[in-house]
Design goal:
Elements: H1 4-10, E1 19-22, H2 28-33, H3 36-42, E2 45-48, H4 53-65
Parallel strand pairs: 1-2
Length: about 70
């Protein structure tokens, strides 16, 4: 397991991805928290599914605070 920000720094060498797909049921919030720097700097298009009502609100609030619009 590696945080998105660590992957962004070490593997991508801070090159911005344009698209990010997550398939990690119930751990979306933790993934986004681990990638705050990359999400702020790069604003990649995000594709994910979240079926947990309790986590959805936190995920959506976090992404909205980063300037993302949800569809």
């Amino acid at each position: 397991v590696i945080a998105l920000d660590d992957f962004y720094h070490s593997t991508l060498q801070e090159r911005c991805p344009s698209f990010l797909k997550l398939d990690i049921e119930h751990y979306e919030l933790y993934a986004f928290l681990g990638g705050m720097r990359m999400l702020r700097q790069c604003k990649p298009l995000l594709f994910f599914e979240s079926n947990c009502y309790i986590l959805n609100k936190s995920v959506f609030l976090l992404l909205a605070s980063l300037g993302y619009e949800l569809f």
